[in-house]
Amino acid sequence: MRVIALIVMLAAMTLGVRAADDAITPREARRDAKATAGWLATLYERLADQHFHTGNWDDAVSALDRVIILKPVAGVDPYASAAWLLFSTGKMDEAMAMYQRMIEENPTDPDGYFELGMFYFRRHNYSEALAWFEKAVALGLPLPKRHMYGHTLSKLGRNADALAFWEQVLVEEPTNEVAQREVVRLRQPQPAVDVAPYAHDHSAVDDLALPACPDCE
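RE: above sequence
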């Protein structure tokens, strides 16, 4: 409640001061409006964090939605966080709608495609995950997030493609320990992979126990 009160107070103060300033120009008005929106977005980010840690996930999603509206250049993080909260509470249609907004409003950001790839990877739908990781890589997804493309190839039993990917990573980063490990592993005979179990989704409850990108920390 204190955060909400502060939001209202800041907005009122900013708008009130400018309303009394007859000399304000349109350019100054746009600048001040942008600054006010930035302040409010920051406060809603903190409010979302507060709701998350107190278990009020629906309220956290609402706060994140306001961040998206107030801060169009926030990137994919608020979308991805809101979508994670939605699918983790079984609201799959709303989660997918949020992911769709994320891609539509950030079409050239590789992190958006990466987040969708991670969504499907966590649910063991590796074919779909690979399609999104491919789009992220094509848009310049940096290492170590790009590692997920190689891991997903291995999950699908595409070991020759995975080996070629990791060898290319070593060309870029000769000291990359994950790539070194994967190249050594993939040059050994590999057991066949049955990809049939990975063609369907699992319950949202399982997602809560699954790690994020294993090499991205």
